[in-house]
Amino acid sequence: MTLVSPRYQNPYAGFPLDNSSQGRMMRPSLSGLSVGLRPPVAPVASPASLYTFLPNRQNAPYRFAVMGDAGTGDLNQALVARQMSFWHQVMPYNSVMVLGDNVYKNGEPALFPDRITRPYQDLQRQGVRFFPVLGNHDVKKGFGDWQLAYWGVPPFYNFKLGPPGFEVEFWAIDTNLLIPQSSLEGQANPVLARQKAACQMAWLAQSLAQSTASMKVVYGHHPMASRGANTKPGRAFEQQILASQLGPLFSRYGVDLYMSGHEHHYEKPALVSGTYHLVSGAGGKLDSAKRGGPEGNGLLKQLHFMLFEITPQGLTYRTISSDGKFIDCGKIPRRGMLGGQLYTYA
Ligand SMILES: [Fe+2]
Q1: Is residue 289, in this structure, part of any structural domain at all?
Q2: Distance from Cα 223 to the centre of ligand 1, integer Å
Q3: 128 CA distance to ligand 1 centroid (A)?
Q4: Pick the residue with more confidence: 297 or 309?
């Protein structure tokens, strides 16, 4: 295949990096992650690779959006992106956690501008920052490192949002590394894939242990606990592999929430072994009525994104459909706080 080199743009170019009250972003030196035409060598992450964000008053620092499985380039992606832009005017947010499968079907670099930049350029122009993880479609042809370079992030990283004393720390992880069958590298070079996975797990355990944040949120592409996933071949196996590796860490270090996509629907946050799990995988792709389990009991087959707010009591969320309706809302309490009862559907 002849690859036509796309014109690379750094989505964060122009974002203020000064000490003004409008916001400051301190980033580690991401050696090897220069935005260029060569796939970079993924840096070894360490707890020192923490991104710290200070308040950006214009952009409501304590709200963030979540969406996954968006990269179709079709009308569905555009409709969700349009709602994200609209709701940014109503309830401004300054970050978007992107849950993977950002470029269908094979993560082709030539499609990055069309799937990653164009639908969200309105938000990016307003300083909204995007924190992606890679999905199986992003890595299946070996273009994962290209996409990370395009976004300007390492393969796994952590950062904080929220006011002092109520900070929420996020860990963005590459679950493809933990499910080697899902990546080209995992199939072609299982030894290297295992080394990368071990590196990520060591980093995750160490930084979770060192975290002093009042809430801990981990997110990756594949779910650990999805009811809908169990109706598709191979999906239960993926969840078992992930749960066996991540579950013990989540319990030991008190992870409050795990967010994933991969299943093209919405699953309301549900408490599993002390950690809330949600699935938000319909930011552009949607399962048919037959695939991914029946609707109901917290599972909805609607294109959507989620809008979160960090409050002293925990996280509140609204799930907004591609036609602008609230299809769910609720709260995820800080540990030790009462009031964690989830709302029923609006
Ligand atoms: Fe996926």
Answers
A1: no
A2: 10
A3: 24
A4: 309
